[in-house]
Each structure stands twice: as C-alpha cells, then as structure tokens.
Amino acid sequence: MKPFERTKAGRRAQPSLRLAPEAPADPRWENVVRLAARLCATPIAAVVSLAEDGRYRLEAHVGLTGKLSWQDSFLSALESSSGALFIPDARQHALHRDNPLVCGAPAIRFFAGWALRDRRQRFMGAFFVASPEERAHCAADELSALELLAAIARDQLLEQLHEERLTQERDLASGLLNQVRSLVMVLDAHCGIDLLNHAAEQALGYTSSEVRGERPWKVFCSAEQAGAAEEWFQRALHGGLEQELEGVWLSRHGEHHLLAWTPQLFTSPQGRQFLVCTGIDQTERRQLEMQLRGAQRMEAIGRLAGGVAHDFNNLLTIITGYSDLLLEPDNEFDPQQFTASVREIKAAAERAANLTRQLLAFSRQQVLAPRVLNLNDQVAGAVSMLRRLIGEDVELSTALDAGLGQVKADPGQIEQVLMNLAVNARDAMPQGGRLMIETCNVEMDGSTLITVGPAIPGPTIPPGAYVLLAVSDTGHGMSRDVQNHIFEPFFTTKEKGQGTGLGLSTVYGIVKQSGGFILVYSEVNCGTTFKVYLPRIFSPREIVTPAPKVAAPRGQETVLLLEDEFHVRAVIRQILQRFGYSVLEAPQPEHALEVCRKNPNIALLVSDVIMPRVNGREMARRMRELQPHLRVLFISGYTDRAVVENGLLEAGTSFLQKPFSPEALARKVREILDAAPQPSALTPAPPERP
C-alpha cells in the first residue's frame, strides 16, 4: 500500500491510500484494537502512526471500510488537540460532517480518539474507536480502559520507532562500512568480534555472524603469533597502544594475508565500548616490494657491470695503445720515451688490479691475508697519509682507546677502509670542517638497539665483544633516501666524473668479509658517523670468565621521551616501561612543550640531540623554563665526541650513544635520577646550521 505524501511546500496532498478491511494488520497492535472495540462496544477501532518521513501508516484496525487520508478531519483534529477528542455525533459537527467516513460508509457518528505523543510532546499518531451510532459520552470504566489502551499503544509505538531507528542506524553504519575498501573489524568490550565489514569478510573468508563473539587471535592467528596478538588487542582495548599490529593472518581457505591493523576506541551513546580496528592487506604490496628489491638488485648488478666495463675499457685502451706503439717496427724510441711508455702500461695494470680488489671486496670473494692487529696502530700509521688526502681545510683529530682490544683483519684492507671513509668525509665538507676517528671496546648482548639511518631499525648485532672504529665528520649529512643506497656499487651523489661510486660499497664488502658490521648515522646539515664493529680477538691470557649479569635498576618516575622517529621512540618507550617508568611520548618539540605544561611532575627528559627545527639542547632549555628541576638525558647515533665538537652539547652533559642495550639505558636513567640536582637551565645553544 502506498503512503500519503506531503508536497514540497508543506501542504497535504490528495488522498492516495485506501485503508480497507483487506489491509493486513500488524500482530503487535491487533490485540489492542480488538480489545478497544469490545470494551467500548464499538465496531470500529484503529491505531494510525506518523512515519519518520512525515507520512501516515495504518498499524492495525477493526471494521474500517472507508478512506483515511492526510485530509481526514479526525486525524487533523487529533494532531492539533491537547489530548483526547470526543464527538457524540459527527453529523452535527461542522468540521467533520463532510468527512467521507461520516457521509459515506461506514457512516461514523460517534468518535473517541487520543493523540499519541512522544516524550517531547511531538505527534506520533492516533488511537481511536468509532461507531455508526451516536453516543452522548463514554462510561467511566470505558474511558479508563480506553485511556489505558491508548497509553499501551503509545508505549508500543515508541518502542517500535526506537527499534526501527536502531535498525536504520545499524543498516546505515553497516552499509557505510561495507563501502570502505579497508578491512574493518569491531570488537566488543571483551575482545569478542562484533562486526566484520565486507572487505574483511572477503579477505578472511568468514561472515560476521560466523565469528561473532570469537577472539580474533584464536580464529586467524597461528600459535606462534597468537600470544603477541592477544597482548596487542588487550592493550589497545584499554587505550594503551598507538602503533599498528602487523602480522600474517590465516583465512578460512588457508590463504596467508599480511595485515596491518590500527586501533581506535569508540564509545556508543549508550555507554558501550568498542574497539574499531582498521586493517590494510599488505600482502600484494609486500610481494611488489620483493619484486622491486629484486629489480633494484638487478639494476645494481647492471650498474656494476656497466661501471666495470667502462673502467676496464679505459685501462685496456691505455695498455693496448702503448703496447701497439712499442711494437711498431718502424718507430724508434729514445730510452726515456720507452721507459715512460712502459711505466704508463704498468700504472694502468696496477689500477686494473686495484679495481679488481675493490670488486672482490664488494662481493666478499677476495683472498685476504688477515692477522691479529690493533686498530690504534692502523689509525696512527694512516694519519699522515689521511692529512694529505683530506687537505688543510679539514681538521683531523683522533680519540684512541689505550686499552683497545685486538681484531683479526687484513691490514691493507683496514687501511683502505680508513682511506675511503676519509675521502667520503672530505667530499661532504667542501668548505672545510672536522674529521674525527675514534676507537673503543664495546660489548653487545644481542638486545642492543641498532638503527641504520635515523629511523630504520636494522638487524641486531650478535652478542659478543667488539672493537668499534667510528669515523665522524661535520659535513652536509645525508637524507634517508641516500642512506638507503650508499653501499650499492656505483651509487654516487657526486657530479659525473668526480666519483666512481665504489668507495662505500668497497668498505661494506671489506667489513662483512672480515666478519664485522657497519652502521651509518646521519642527518642533513648535521654531519655523518660511520661505525665499524669488528669482533674482538682474545689471547688465551686475556680470556676471562664474564662476571654474572647484574639486574639493571628500576624506577617509578615519570619520563618524557622526545624522539621524532616512530620506531626508535616505540622501542625506547617499551624499554623504559619494562623497568617500571611511566612514559609520556612526544614526537615533535612543540608536542613536548605542551606535554610539559600539562604534567608538572616529569622527572626526566630523554631527548634525541638532533630534532626537526630545534635541536635537543635548545628544547631542553625551553622545557627547564617550565620545570626548572627537570633532569635531561640526551641520546644520539653520533659519538659523544662528535656532538660536543659540533657544538650541539657541552662537555659533561648526560649523554648516551646509540646503539645501546636496554640495561645500559636503565642504568643511565637511574644514574641521572639518583645524582645531585642538575643546573636549573641550560646555556643557550649555538645558532642552527643553515
């Protein structure tokens, strides 16, 4: 049946709905209208409601055979009335005597109706009884019964409208979620699945109804990943997570999907709490990344082959050219010219041999002549050569650990590492600067935080004793994109003809072939530090039983962590929380100031030295203006000597160099918090570099 409709101008349209006995009755109202007809001894009773979109609909009726429309005078009178409407004889009423229900069938005379209104007194519909016989009034018991039935009809109508509204809202929300291309999974307050959108159902192979109430890690995760996933969801539900969850999820059909979920807490108007997880299927992207890496490797090989061919062709041109000249039967050479030609041939052959050594070092196939040596001796022996190599406008300084351990390496290759790193540093300082070479002993426990570049977590260096060779410069630094390619053969940022692109790739090959590791830490306009870790060699007399590991001290203070790189910030936060500290995070300096204003009880600031726009030293000074007793620990991938000589920190400032172990960080934090109060303000930082 078609409902009545209003015109755009708000006037009621012509009747378009016939309410006849054959119209189906809603069972929830049928008992109400039948009981009303019997109690009042009237053959007609009905409940009419006003739909949400402004149209009437007949919920249930008894004995109504005429027409009912927007223009019906009975409904109009009830809509404008304050409550009940009693009409003894509608023929004698000027407003109703022309009503088709009065002058035609069923010829209504007596009418008693009640307006059904919501709690805000808005008209929702009508409940009425009618009779073809006129009546002067309703008996008191009839009136009470009808008023009670009207109240029941009102409550049922409110409940029905509420159910319909909730259904519409849920259908709308479900429809919107199903249009989202990302995967959406809604969990209830007990981490049970409440809803999967269409994209999630397609990827995981289950409908919402099939997994409703199930824990996601039990349905979709392997036994190895279930524990970590459960912990992530539980923490996310209690608002303790920001980072996403990435892992392999198993679909119903046995397919593996690499999914990354981002959590968001949501509270409904009724106070129910939900965890809305938005997921991205990274399976295809990861496959494309693997293909891209393969393509990049092929590109590097092609670049290597092209560079080798170019350099060898030049060398062969020299060798064959002079050889042909010497073999000419008619040419006469004086002894000096003959000797010069032979020397050119020999020099070209030596350059070819050197190129071959570089290629073998890069591919880790060169036959080395390693022996036990002390890197201090190698550095000291190379200083004079390095000074001539870098020029007078670059200041060279060394800081060599007197108790440095020994390593097993090829002395010539170590010399080449020093030379290539020095040349790379010199080229990064065209206007001059400082070059620092440092050595020291380090211990790795297998949990050391390693960063390759400013934000990219690298592999963990295996536990053990190492000798560190650090080469730092004050040059223009490198962007993250450049750092991702610096060890590739023939990759160079120099102008054509000014670099072969083999220097750093050769260093990488030598270090890896010697069983070591090389890391780089660099920021644009803030210089670069290369760190070479070589396994330490112990003589029988030097080997000692390691002392038992002492648990690092714990604490309960509040620590503010200022670090702009997400992955580094996340792991340091977990380390501090593991040792009992409450951690407030700030990814940017402006955010840190706001956190400092809102939290007056911060005990310690842990800040990276190099920050966007404002360095850590200046940031700490501003924060100490808000909290004078705030203690500060600076961290950086540069060496402590490098940051002091660059003017970023003063000597004696609390500093921890990356990489560091969780225990080293915990001990340093405890040492600072337990020490005597630091000065109330930091001295002004030097002007920022352009």
What report would you give on this structure?
The structure is a single chain. By secondary structure, the chain is of the alpha+beta class. It is 39% helix and 21% strand. The chain contains 19 helices and 24 strands. The strands form six sheets. A five-stranded antiparallel beta sheet has the order 2-1-5-4-3, sandwiched between helices. Strands 7-6-10-9-8 form a five-stranded antiparallel beta sheet. It has a five-stranded mixed beta sheet with strand order 12-14-17-19-18. Helix 1 (27-39) runs antiparallel to helix 4 (140-179). The chain is elongated and about 145 Å long. Mean pLDDT is 76; it is low at 1-25, 361-367, 449-458 and 683-690.
**Poorly predicted ranges:** 1-25, 361-367, 449-458, 683-690
Q: Report strand %.
A: 15-25%
> Using only CA atoms, what is the Rg?
42 Å
User: In terms of structural class, how would the helical and strand content be classed?
Assistant: alpha+beta
What is the overall pLDDT average? 76
**Cα separation of the termini:** 77 Å
How many β-strands, per DSSP?
24
State the major sheet.
5 strands, antiparallel
Overall 3D shape:
elongated
Oligomer type: single chain
Number of helices: 19
Give the strand order, joined by hyphens, for the main sheet. 2-1-5-4-3
* Helix share bin: 25-40%
Note the main attributes of this structure:
elongated; alpha+beta; five-stranded antiparallel sheet; 21% strand; disordered C terminus; disordered N terminus
Quick structural summary:
The chain is an alpha+beta fold and 690 residues long.
Sequence-ordered SSE layout with sheet pairings:
Elements: H1 27-39, E1 44-50, E2 56-62, H2 73-80, E3 84-87, H3 100-103, E4 110-117, E5 123-131, H4 140-179, E6 183-187, E7 193-196, H5 198-204, H6 208-211, H7 216-220, H8 223-237, E8 245-250, E9 256-267, E10 273-281, H9 283-327, H10 335-363, E11 371-373, H11 375-390, E12 394-399, E13 407-409, H12 411-427, E14 433-444, E15 451-452, E16 456-457, E17 464-473, H13 480-483, H14 503-513, E18 517-522, E19 528-535, E20 558-562, H15 566-578, E21 582-586, H16 589-598, E22 604-608, H17 616-626, E23 631-636, H18 640-645, E24 655-657, H19 662-674
Parallel strand pairs: 12-14, 20-21, 20-22, 22-23, 23-24
Antiparallel strand pairs: 1-2, 1-5, 3-4, 4-5, 6-7, 6-10, 8-9, 9-10, 11-13, 14-17, 15-16, 17-19, 18-19
